[in-house]
Amino acid sequence: MSKTVKHKTADTPPSRRMPNRDVHPFFEKLAATIDEPVTELHYKSNFELLIAVILSAQATDISVNIATKQLYPVANTPESILALGEEALKAYIKNIGLYNAKAKNVIKTCQALIDNFDSTVPDNRQDLESLAGVGRKTANVVLNTAFGQPTMAVDTHIFRVGNRTGLATGKNVLIVEQKLVERIPEEFMLDAHHYLILHGRYTCQARTPKCGACPVYNECMFKDKAAFVAI
Predict the structure, then answer these.
(1) Is 211 annotated as a binding residue?
(2) Where is this region: Disordered (predicted)?
């Protein structure tokens, strides 16, 4: 007799649009459940945050924190990482995916910060995106987390949550980002990125969403949510 396997939801089609009346309660409930809507990357300066976010592309925060725990006591400024050099930097970050390319980008970014920004992390999108390894998502994370700007960085977790819940559906991250910015109530906008990413990381997971423990179960438009209540 074959085993019964629940269907996988990592590639769940977009749900129906969440009604406007449910958007505010959706964020109210997330806010009541998530006490600390902050990044799980470890950092003590804007520069450390920038480097950690660059390293986190296609990698887990846990792997990045392991690497930076060893790196930052040795080098945590543009000058000190540049002095460390690309090969030595690789030794610190080799547990992270794509570490060769990331080491090149970090070195280039450090040089650009020294040459163009007085070794200071810029507080605007144009300058941030001029740095090696910094795209729109990374810039949004830095602008939001370091400078308190109401930006929305859409990673795989947020892309999934937006589509699955019906909060913001779209075929690519830019569409989802734009719809989220349009729909999120102003009072929640600053912390919305972290509410959604933490919800996606620990509750609305890709293959086995924990619908039975979901604080926004009633607002969520995922048509198969009842099948996952026992998880």
Answers:
(1) yes
(2) 1-21
